[in-house]
Batch of 2 targets.
Target 1
Amino acid sequence: MALRVPGFLAAGVACGIKDGGALDLAVIASERPAVGAAVFTRNRVPGAPIRVSRPRARRGRVRAVVVNSGISNVATGERGCRDAREMTAAVGRELEIPAGEVLVSSTGVIGVPLPMRRILRGIPMAVRALSPAGWNRAARAILTTDLRPKLVHQNAAGFALLGIAKGSGMTMPNMATMLAYLVTDLAIERSWLSGVLREVVDSTFNRLSIDGETSTSDSVAVMANGAAGNRPIEAGSRRGPEFVRSLAAVCQELVEKIAADGEGVTRLADVVVSGARSNAHADRIARKIANSILVKTALFGSDPNYGRLVQAAGAAGVPIEVGRLGVRVGGVWLLRNGVPVGGTKALRRAERAMKQRRVELAIVVGSGAGRATLLTCDLSYEYVRINAEYTT
Amino acid sequence: MALRVPGFLAAGVACGIKDGGALDLAVIASERPAVGAAVFTRNRVPGAPIRVSRPRARRGRVRAVVVNSGISNVATGERGCRDAREMTAAVGRELEIPAGEVLVSSTGVIGVPLPMRRILRGIPMAVRALSPAGWNRAARAILTTDLRPKLVHQNAAGFALLGIAKGSGMTMPNMATMLAYLVTDLAIERSWLSGVLREVVDSTFNRLSIDGETSTSDSVAVMANGAAGNRPIEAGSRRGPEFVRSLAAVCQELVEKIAADGEGVTRLADVVVSGARSNAHADRIARKIANSILVKTALFGSDPNYGRLVQAAGAAGVPIEVGRLGVRVGGVWLLRNGVPVGGTKALRRAERAMKQRRVELAIVVGSGAGRATLLTCDLSYEYVRINAEYTT
């Protein structure tokens, strides 16, 4: 039925890292050998789980993933790496597969050692609980400050693709802050899968910025187990583009769920930059705007403050043609060719657009062909409250 | 008397840009010819006043400054430049000096044309009000969301140095967001003065970051009129270092006043980065930490969350020796050589330190000699309120 992917099992259990019996340990596994690929944070202080998982993902044989939430296993020294390896060894033992085919993630508070006794008691429980219908519980077990689990499922022509994700704070550009795991029953050649994943992550997760922060634990992994019985998809395969489209669609849907669940988010904005000299320039401007706390507070206050967009664009450090500057908020032009247009009437219309749940903030910075878009959100009292009170 | 600098006059008047009769127009002038230098924002969309003032400052003959608050004259097209020039022409006429020796600044809302009728009525009023004791009113007339005027005066051996500044939001690295004007009665050779100002701004104003935003209007200008009767100070002069020290001290005191008056600020932090491969690397890490909204909300919540410092440092895009990572909060080591130290007792002591009005956040990122410091502040509910409600 829906929410199943042939040959894949999932489970989420409570092993006691979080208080109150909340789910905090997830295992995903393929019943048959599978290939995998992963993309990790570009933060220079990656968590121990990433240091353990990265070479395994590179080898491309991935049959299971184990994830705990509540504690991130970052800044924990050599002990952290030992703990991460031990988690994968426990999963390997229980599933009777090589530990080297198990990836591991941890998310939560930084700098605290993992309670390994609880985790090692939890892993056999999780493996026993593995089921083709366990995705909802797995999706819940990987959450931290998220309000809602994030699960997307697609049954396309002849194959299934399912993704779960986690993320709401500390979410940003260089591999938007989160964990996401995708599984498909297609057979896929692993080096091709790895390239495709990188490409899709760049156009989906990396186009999201909640708060300009890059977590130390970001990971996106995909597994393909071939239960669909197709000839392995590789470069040039007829079915390649179809899979890439599905993967991009599922990832984008996860991105939208993450953005909507951002900490204290009341409003989303699509930042659209055009007219830059290059896409790279446009991207720098889009990130500067998306991460500007003055833009984000204006978004919270529904203030069509195009001056702040201009200020942020100008601070991106790339050339801008001042005489061609344009700003369009919610479809309403407020600045064209460097001069305000439309008067108070336009401002009122833009303000109304900014009261919606989602608004487009478009800026033209010159006559070039460079373009970029980015999804961001507002900065509310609630964001401050959550992050002043919660120890991540 | 105190608060005077021989040969300099200042005034602040209300010309009706702001509501309620608030002071909004300042003029500073030297009674005798003076040299000047200025440093402006690196924002790529500088306001019209900067486009008018920059070449004048470069020529180095500066005898007066006119500043309005309330409206910034940014993103106002060619009209903005005409208006800025007209302001300086009016000051020139009233003072009987060339308009080319007058600098102009505007600060406040972006994208709104200046109410030139009011300003041109206000300039003669301001010139008539010029007085050797007008500094307090001038310091008040340049404010926007600031709560307090910022004025620093130093009477050193044989000369006077006085500075006023404005700035509390949109304050950041590349020429920290603000306006500052400094005057001295020393005679100073102008190209030397220009180099000295750049150097002092780099070590004072540019070491402050309130919110990571770079305003379109940042300007620091200095005038020296020689009323002290000294031989002009130039490169190699015996009195040079003494003047540089005074200038740096006055600028630093203005920086502290700006930081203390930051929008919604409840707490300041000195970010100290050491062990980087170079000072430039350390600077990038310090800025990433100082501008991290997760660090800033932790600062607001007095949460000794060294994980967020580590995360921000890792996101700066420069190399970090993970095994040598150290974090010291308020003098208390929480992480050394990549491993947490001191346990909950250390955390409690660090938390107490973080409840102070000012705290040091030190991070060691390796074994290199690169160092940087930066002054920053917390992110409070009040900051969000001010910036969600106030149209800049």
Target 2
Amino acid sequence: MDSYSGKITRLAEQFASLPGIGAKSAQRLAFHIVSMPEENVSALAEAILDARRNIRFCKYCCTLTDEEVCPICASDKRDHSTIMVVENARDLAAYEKTGRYEGVYHVLQGAISPAAGIGPNEIRLKELMRRLQSEDVKEVIIATNSSLEGETTAMYISKLIKPSGIPVTRIASGVPVGGDLENIDEVTLLRALDGRVPL
Amino acid sequence: MDSYSGKITRLAEQFASLPGIGAKSAQRLAFHIVSMPEENVSALAEAILDARRNIRFCKYCCTLTDEEVCPICASDKRDHSTIMVVENARDLAAYEKTGRYEGVYHVLQGAISPAAGIGPNEIRLKELMRRLQSEDVKEVIIATNSSLEGETTAMYISKLIKPSGIPVTRIASGVPVGGDLENIDEVTLLRALDGRVPL
């Protein structure tokens, strides 16, 4: 590998350590970087440092943001009495893209995973409970992933909230729109059957 | 997209402008960066700037390197009388990986492509001719790609060198090892037939 330049090799190694970038792509990226105009390279490096250094968690919903309060929590066009609980900011972004959800969020920054040693204290659950005490909340929608960790987290949160009397719901699980039944796993098929709704 | 943080969005846009990184991967990378330890992020940004700022072309073979002369041209273990001509440093790296080639290289930093407006003066051809005059070269092996541009470049170079009397060879073209004949294009099959060797 060191036949051309140690600096390119080191850069390729840096890229290869990022998720989803293999050795070949990392090398291609490194060669691309050295052939880019210098100001574009500076802009990339600056964006990397800037994002890492100036990011923080929203005071209310714990999502990643530049400000003390994220744009959604700061907006008076949102329904602050409905809180959707998601695992991370990417999931929040996915629901925001639908353009239909008008409530606010709570970002757990993870999910309970005994296997990975992540317990209720390692995720932003205390912050959620504090919100439920201080804010006037009418519904908590749990939108954690439909994985073992996501389901465990959903069950845990719903038990935790129940005594307060605030209604807790869970997003529906079933056959995805456009999904072909023959390609869908049995667990999902049974979930879809159990969750059937009258037409 | 701006529902979480403008800085993450800007970083994702930067990543998405790199080759082979789509919008989804760019977003995943951006979120990964903000969750990385700060020293790792600094190391990545530093490697990017360092590679771009301190890279130059080897005085002899024109490959990308940190020094005035690349490690291969500087090595006295290599056969400096055999020059393999390649299009770019990635191709050089591919042949270096075989561990069998003991000569040196010349990196054209491109290939002649009338369609893209790249003529013989846009690639490092003058530098090659200068080497052939000043060094004692016994063979020039042309290892440009087996594409239209690569073949055009190979023909052009061989004509240019011929008057000097230095032997010019071209790497073999044919069916790749492990290749299944039924999946190989006709041009390659005919090339393999034309280039058949006695057993």
